[in-house]
Backbone:
């Protein structure tokens, strides 16, 4: 069976983990955490960053920093992972879900403005598959209506909008190092602070509501409880693992892009025949080969394609049932229909994509999909979304 994902070990993880133990500080914010912080600052010009135990945690920190309270409204796409919404719901916010665009599963930027009102506090964008949302339009809306912008860049390491690293454009940005992402630490995440106003408080929220960081810098003579917060920082073991991965980021990216391009090249003819839709990369965006997805013509066709691949030994998956239709939230949703989101929920397929996937396997999988469409009985037809 070709798995959907396989976590990749770069080779130095165990060495660094043992080093972290020998340094004598296993708790957070030690040698490797600082190394990771410096890495992100230097590589992406981020001004202030915090490793977190997950991207979910980085989103929760964001909700705390933005002071989200009962009755605040947060605008975000419905086609995303639960955590994007959950972090804000926990603070009492109402989520105003927006449809996906026709071109790709990202938020439909032109549908945001009519949903803004006095209670709106923030827009959370998700750079789905590492492909950027139009951040000029988002930041314009934020400026005009005095809103905060959080970039869920969980999938977007090494991806840019007009030459700028994603996660570094909104007021706050978050990344994930979950084992399914391009670089991993098992569970892990990063919060990026792009707005100076949040810098000081973020330090406190990160370390259980204490001013420990100030104390260790010698700025105060004792430390204690000064604000809300939680234990958002990961242990040095996690940071050590992540550092080994980061040192191999270029190598990982080269391989993933090679595989991605090969999928695209070998499936392209199916777009021309309107059999399916492949990712479109807008000219302001870059591709970080986080994910290779295709969009089938119907739920039935997708179910058959996934079953066909499974039978041939390939594990392909789908994901994101629109959050506005989720068991937890649908009664709280205001009832607006989000048709593109439903199409992606029903028709999107993710193909195997991981560092150790072989070129020959990508060729094989592409061949299977082409074969499926030659044999498949349903006539080609255009799905509702624009090609
Ligand atoms: C993976 C992912 C998350 C959650 O990341 P964790 O590190 O598992 O908490 C959130 N948002 C998006 C878009 C993701 O892809």
Residues:
């Amino acid at each position: 069976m070709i798995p959907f994902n396989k976590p990749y070990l770069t080779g130095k993880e165990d060495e660094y983990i043992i080093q972290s133990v020998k340094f004598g500080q296993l708790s957070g914010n030690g040698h490797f955490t600082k190394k990771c912080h410096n890495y992100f600052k230097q590589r992406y010009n981020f001004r202030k960053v915090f490793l977190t135990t997950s991207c979910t945690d980085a989103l929760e920190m964001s909700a705390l920093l933005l002071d989200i309270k009962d009755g605040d409204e947060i605008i975000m796409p419905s086609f995303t992972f639960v955590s994007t919404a959950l972090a804000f719901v926990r603070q009492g916010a109402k989520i105003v879900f927006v449809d996906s665009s026709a071109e790709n599963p990202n938020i439909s930027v032109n549908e945001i403005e009519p949903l803004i009102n006095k209670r709106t506090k923030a827009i959370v964008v998700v750079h789905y598959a590492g492909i950027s949302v139009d951040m000029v339009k988002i930041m314009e809306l934020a400026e005009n209506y005095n809103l905060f912008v959080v970039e869920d860049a969980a999938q977007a390491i090494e991806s840019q909008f007009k030459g700028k690293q994603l996660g570094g454009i909104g007021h706050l940005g978050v990344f994930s190092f979950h084992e399914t992402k391009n670089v991993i630490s098992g569970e892990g995440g990063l919060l990026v602070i792009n707005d100076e106003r949040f810098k000081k408080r973020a330090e406190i929220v990160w370390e259980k509501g204490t001013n420990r960081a100030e104390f260790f810098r010698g700025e105060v003579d004792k430390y204690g409880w000064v604000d809300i917060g939680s234990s958002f920082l990961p242990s040095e073991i996690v940071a050590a693992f992540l550092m080994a991965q980061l040192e191999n980021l270029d190598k990982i990216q080269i391989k993933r892009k090679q595989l991605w391009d090969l999928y695209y090249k070998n499936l392209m003819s199916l777009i021309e025949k309107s059999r399916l839709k492949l990712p479109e990369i807008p000219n302001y965006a870059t591709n970080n080969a986080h994910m290779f997805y295709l969009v089938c013509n119907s739920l039935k066709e997708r179910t058959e394609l996934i079953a066909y691949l499974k039978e041939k030994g390939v594990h392909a998956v789908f994901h994101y049932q629109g959050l506005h239709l989720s068991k937890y939230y649908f009664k709280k949703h205001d009832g607006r229909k989000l048709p593109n989101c439903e199409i992606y929920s029903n028709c999107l397929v993710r193909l195997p994509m991981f560092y150790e996937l072989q070129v020959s396997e990508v060729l094989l999988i592409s061949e299977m999909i082409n074969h499926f469409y030659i044999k498949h009985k349903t006539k080609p037809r255009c799905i509702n979304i624009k090609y």
